[in-house]
Amino acid sequence: MIASTCLAYLWTLQNSHLPKLIEVTPHVMKLSEIRTKFPLTDFATRHWLGHARAAGENQERLFLWTSKFFMDKPFIKFWLGFRNAIDEWPQALISNYGRVPALYFASLAGLNRSIELLLDSGAKIDAGSIIGRSALQVAAHEGHMELVMTLLDHGATAKARNMRHHPVGSGSHITALAAASWNGHIQTVQLLLKHAPDIDAGAGCTTGPSGEYNFPTALWSASFNGHLEVVQCLLVGGANVNAYDWLHGTALSAALSTAHTQVSLLLLQWDADIHTSGGDSHGNALCAAVFGGDLALVENLLQRGARISSHEEEYETALLTAVEVDRIDLVDVLLSHYTDIDRKVLDDALRRVRSTTDRRVIKTLLDHGANINHPRTHLLHMLCEQGSLQTARLLLENGADVNNQLNQDRNPLITACQNDRLDVVMLLISMGADVNHNNSEGVSALQMAFIYKCFEIAGYLLKNGAQISEAKSYHDPPLLTSCNCGNFEMVKMLCEHGANINQQSMRNQNALEAACNHGDIAIVQFLIDHGANVKMCDSNALTVASEKGYLEIAQLLLAHGADVRGGSPYKTPMQAACYGERIQVVELLLKNGAEVSVTAFGYGSTLNNACHTRNTDMVDLLLNAGLDVNAQTTAHGIWYGCY
């Protein structure tokens, strides 16, 4: 009933409602517009085929509608337009569907009467096979055995090959046999084997219209999914147990990597080669077994003489895989079968360690001779970055160089500071880390801590001998950073450890200016008390305080001799205060002798700035103080007020 209703809805939509809408609509309606105006479109499009499959075509009403659908190409195209949009399939798949025969969809749903109707009407039984969309391929994929039998009786080609891989349904399998094997449809597989299918199709590349594709064989597909009966059936039917392609490898590697023990043992009984490469994903059978994680299978392969590593191939070794899957039992059993320790393999395995790796795995590798200080091993840096304290301790206790540099860029201590790992910093220093080491840019651990505002770490470094550098760099000096952040305790600590209070950054900003910018009068007072030069000729401290309206800080600076004209040729305190609409600060500056009419390059006059803010009180204050209303810079004050 539901399937019939859905088809009736879509049919009426296509043949009745849309033509009427198009007559009165000057543009071609988009699918999204149709779906908005007819909200049941999505449901009908998505679900009619599934409901038809469940109901079967014994109901005459349903067969009436399915036969109408499958015999009408425009209706199928109309339906597919919606289905593609709803499922958001890639454009390549949509274009492929232009060649998908109606027989495919009838077979997908197992609609036998519709298939008979289509065949009687002259439908080509193998149509769509080149794109994996033939009736036989999809019937095998879905396990419709009776339908497969019907199609074969009508002459469907069992060995027809898919030449254009795509991931949907039967399109990802090279033949009907491979599709049935993937899903474990044993009766369908047995039936297809009686019709001389290409049993090893998929071993190697298949060349299609758009290039080469790698499909798995039927045996690989069944092995990967653990379908023991199907595997047995294929082997008895003559499948090559060692069929191989570079992407998928062999059936044995597929079974081992997915830990299908019984299938793996069966393949071994049929003399599957344990030394053949496992394809792009696994180095060999042993690697695949380790990846699958079945210890008994790993031991079985080792007893059969499986190689633990092979440098003849550029693939994973079993030991590397064991480290990747983080299994100490697998690492132990593999290392117990080494006759001669391969240092390179051990070093490579150590580089696969992650911060979450079982420390027993790491300890075992180190005990067997892995070089923790190998130039390509950056494990300690990674642990410092991620804060893996106990694992970092393990490495250091086993000989890791605490000052090892990473590409001349940073050492473990700098890395820990950069990532705010105080506990790791404490560990590194306790193990002898050089607290005053600089990286290639001249940045020390202390500077790095300040760059990333890790003040707790910075304090710990200072207490443990870190020196405050006065060398110019692209980064602000520690004291300036602390002032910018308003960290009074750190400011005091830096001064206690000899920081130069008047040191300037590359932008010529000093600590006093930074403190004024932050607005912390306690820090400003502290800096002045400890020798900050308020009268520096290029200091912008008063200008910054004036623009931000920090009246008390401005008073403090002026009381200690700050130049009321400021220290910048580009902006004076008066201009800054006018621009910031700080009337009280303007009054303070005027009382302390500031010129009422000030012009500085690029920043306009005091009148310009006051008019620009449209602050009439500020303008009145300036005029009452004797400002010349006709004073001009690059822009006239009155013009600004009218703008």
Q: Which class of secondary structure composition applies to the elements?
A: mainly alpha
Number of beta-strand segments: 4
Residues in helices, as a percent range: 40-55%
Radius of gyration: 39 Å
Overall CATH architecture of one domain = Alpha Horseshoe
> How is the main sheet built?
2 strands, antiparallel
Total helical segments = 39
* 3D shape: flat
Low-confidence stretches: 20-27, 85-97, 635-643
Keywords: ANK repeat, Repeat
Written description of the protein model:
With 643 residues, the protein is an all-alpha fold. Among the domains are: 241-371, Serine Threonine Protein Phosphatase 5, Tetratricopeptide repeat (Alpha Horseshoe), CATH 1.25.40.20; 543-643, Serine Threonine Protein Phosphatase 5, Tetratricopeptide repeat (Alpha Horseshoe), CATH 1.25.40.20. The chain is built from 39 helices and four strands. The strands form two sheets. The chain has a two-stranded antiparallel ribbon with strand order 1-2. A two-stranded antiparallel sheet has the order 3-4. Helix 7 (102-108) runs antiparallel to helix 8 (112-120), helix 11 runs parallel beside helix 13 and helix 23 (379-386) runs parallel beside helix 25. It is flat and about 110 Å long. The two termini are 73 Å apart. Mean pLDDT is 85; it is low at 20-27, 85-97 and 635-643.
